[in-house]
Amino acid sequence: MMYTETFKILLVIALYRNWAIQQWDIVAAYLQALLKHDIYITNINEDRETKYWKLHKALYGLKQAGHKLLKMLCDIMNICGMC
Fold first, then answer.
1. 34 near 57, Cβ under 8 Å?
2. N or C: which end of the chain has fewer CB within 10 A?
3. Rounded mean pLDDT of 45-56?
4. C-beta separation of 63 from 30 below 8 A
5. Alpha-carbon distances, residue 26 vs 33, 46, 49, 53 (angstroms)
6. Domain count, the chain
7. Residue 1 gets which letter from DSSP?
């Protein structure tokens, strides 16, 4: 699998450069990524009223949510000089 190879390479680089290795669990990870395009969702309540909401951040289930999260993490890594 491609991700395991990438992970192993990152571990080797970290060991070579004497970096501290940490692991995090990002709570609601997809909710951290901002959306570039306007996406609206609808909700119909019990009174059959339709409400429209504009999303500002990605949600689980959106096709672009994983991509947006990965791009955000890569941007952070670039700022830290890791790429």
1. yes
2. N
3. 88
4. no
5. 12, 35, 35, 25
6. 1
7. -
